Amino acid sequence: MIRKSALLWTVLVLLGCTSHQPSPFADENAAYYWRTDFVLDSAEQAFMKQYDIRTLYCRYFDVVLDKEHGAIPNATLTFTSAVPDGIDFVPTVFITEACMHQPDDSLAVRLVRRVVQMNETNDVKGVKELQIDCDYTRRSRETFYHFLEQVRAEARRHGMQLSTTIRLHQLSMPAPPADYGVLMLYNTGDPQRFDERNPILDLRDVQPYLRHLNGYELPLCAAYPVFLWQREVHGVYIEHTAEASEILRVKQAVEQRRDELRHRIITYHLSEENINRYNTKDYEAFYHH
């Protein structure tokens, strides 16, 4: 009896280690908007309506390191179209890792204030979230996490929660101080090995990181690639896209490890060109919960 009780206790402990709280995400479709001018044509508006896209993660600007002035904004978004009604609009800021090699305690406040100012100037109302995107490494992690803590505190002063992107290699690190993360399931391979594997997405490149999913202590949703990547090799332009079948293989693999990832599904990124890259059946499968 003692041995059976001990075995039962061990099983319960192991189950507890891999369980998760209920997902904070409702079943919802979303997309990234990653251009320098916010303008939605009729095809893009129809696509959002057809697939019930209710959240847009929209790149507002990049933050890059300038030798003379330190961390500065770059490639700021302009607004030609108004933000559609009924859409949760998430300003997203990409910050280069180089900025994290020169800590600046004023950067978080300046960044959030710039986002708030852009919202006010362009009549973007009801913003409840800010997202930070950075390809941080072990070297820059501590500085970046401190920066996120400062951004999160400032964002809350303006009624916004904070999310951040999570790349596969970052899953092995402690979770960042954010309300949730977006697992970026694209650009997973080595561009130098394009003749062996698709550098945008290949399940073989994703699999080594799957063991970190269960224990990762941050709510997660997932983003999948629908874009074209073009690069020049010896004067020849080579184009890469992720096959629909490969996207679905990866989607199935990560959702089997962490059921939470099936709830909010994001595609990267919204454009008429990318819409036409896949057919209706493919998009229905991508957005299947």
What does this structure look like?
- With 289 residues, the protein is α/β, with parallel strands linked by helices.
- It has eight helices and 13 strands.
- Strands 1-3-6-7-8-9-10-13 form an eight-stranded parallel barrel.
- β3 and β4 form a beta hairpin.
Provide the succession of SSEs: HEEHEEEEHEHEEHEEEHEHH
Number of strands: 13
**How does the major sheet shape up?**
8 strands, parallel, barrel
Structural class: alpha/beta
Rg, rounded, reads 20 Å
Strand order, biggest sheet?
A: 1-3-6-7-8-9-10-13
Helical fraction equals: 25-40%
Low-confidence stretches: 1-20
For the record, give the distance between the C-alpha atoms at the N and C termini, rounded to a whole number.
43 Å
- Per DSSP, the total helix count is 8
What is the average of the pLDDT values? 92
Taken from the alpha-carbon principal axes, the silhouette is globular
In terms of DSSP E residues, the strand content is 25-35%
Please provide a brief summary of the model.
The protein has 289 residues and is an alpha/beta fold. Helix content is 30%, strand content 26%.
List keywords for this structure.
289 residues, alpha/beta, eight-stranded parallel barrel, two-stranded parallel sheet, 8 helices, disordered N terminus
Annotate the secondary structure layout.
Elements: H1 2-18, E1 28-33, E2 37-38, H2 42-50, E3 53-66, E4 70-74, E5 78-79, E6 88-95, H3 107-121, E7 129-133, H4 141-157, E8 161-166, E9 180-184, H5 203-206, E10 220-225, E11 229-233, E12 236-240, H6 244-257, E13 264-268, H7 272-275, H8 280-286
Parallel strand pairs: 1-3, 1-13, 2-5, 3-6, 6-7, 7-8, 8-9, 9-10, 10-13
Antiparallel strand pairs: 3-4, 11-12
Helix pairs in contact: 3-4
